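Ticket #4471: structure export looks truncated?
Reporter: QA, pipeline team
Priority: medium

Steps to reproduce: submit the single chain below to the structure queue and open the exported record.
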Amino acid sequence: MSDPVPSIRTSDSERDRVAQLLQAHFAQGRLDHEEFTDRLGRVYKSRTADELATVTRDLPERDLADFRGATPSPEDPLVAPPITMRDPALMVPWILYAGVNILCFVIWLILFFTADYDYPWFLWVLGPWGIVMGVVTFGVLASQRSHPGGTHTP
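Actual output as written to the record:
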């Protein structure tokens, strides 16, 4: 940090600025939880600019990833792994679909055997929802086949 004059008193806005800086360093993994809470307490107890500066003295002013050369080049885009049928993004909706339809079928089956009710209403849940699930699933899988590596080019 810059060299402040030690005898100058700090304001609440300066303490808040340093607290936000500490939060950013905590989020980036430079501080663990215990050290973060200790430093945060020291920030809000500080009275002078020198006391405030000692809290962040060993932390960089800028993130090292901001320096030139540390960012990935635009020629090497990040590629997401391909989605498969075992991916939770597809598996969870299918499990939900199966669970709801099994429940509807069991309710229909109970009505069929106890109340002489034979209209298969559960098919109105099973059919349309199944068509939508199938279209979405095959659309996701087909879009990944047409764009190898999972990248989307406009």
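Status: closed, not a bug. The export was complete when the record was re-opened. Leaving a note from the reviewer for reference: The helical segments are 12-27, 33-45, 49-55, 88-114, 123-146.
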